[in-house]
Amino acid sequence: MERKLIAAGNWKMNMDYDQGRDLAKAIVSGLQPSDALVILGTPYIHLKNISGIIKDISNIKLAAQNCHQEESGAYTGEISAAMLKSCGVEYVILGHSERREYFGESDELIAQKIDIVLKHGLQPIYCCGEKLEVREAGKHEELVGEQVKTALFHLTREQMKQVVVAYEPVWAIGTGKTATPQQAQEMHRFIRGLLRKKFGQEVAGGTSILYGGSVKPDNAKELFSQPDVDGGLVGGASLKAGDFLAIASSF
Ligand code: PEP
Prior knowledge:
single chain, binds phosphoenolpyruvate, alpha/beta
């Protein structure tokens, strides 16, 4: 199982309908066949339309930024995995630190979301990462290890093969502060080691582990050149086609 190199964009709560369509079109027209796999993580309102815009391009896929953990029912305002699938979505970002912080999502809840997403044939992009005080206390590996175990260790090997992991130190998200390539590599290596112990070498070696936290065109190459960094989950810089395309060709 060969791991994929991925540049995933997380648009967060940005881009109205026309802006989102134009951004997707600009990315489609600038993307080279030799670039990494590009994943656009857009607000729900764009999904169906952008799935049409990207449909003929093999190295660009669509992600949602969240999903409800139940199949369907009386959950006003929520979106199910089946609904996402019906709009052409292939990936779902789960466990982003903003969802943990502002919506109280725990790893137990995220584990349920991972299960429903996998059940519907979608691929989770599972985000984990420590806050600044945890890193300063030297407990970042312990915390990320707990997150990974709680959210992923109940999966079968076949299920784990469908998961993309994103290490996103909270102190580096939207702050302009990037983890050094060495800090990213150390944590990615640690995460891959955990996956190896639990799921074996084939699965661990084939899992794409993305780095997230202020990835920009001028730091992407050095981060992505680390042996266990298989790409990036990109927030701010994914909102500008030129910057995002530059990141997608930084491998
Ligand atoms: C993110 O939202 O996942 C992220 C990493 O944001 P930024 O690139 O803006 O730090």
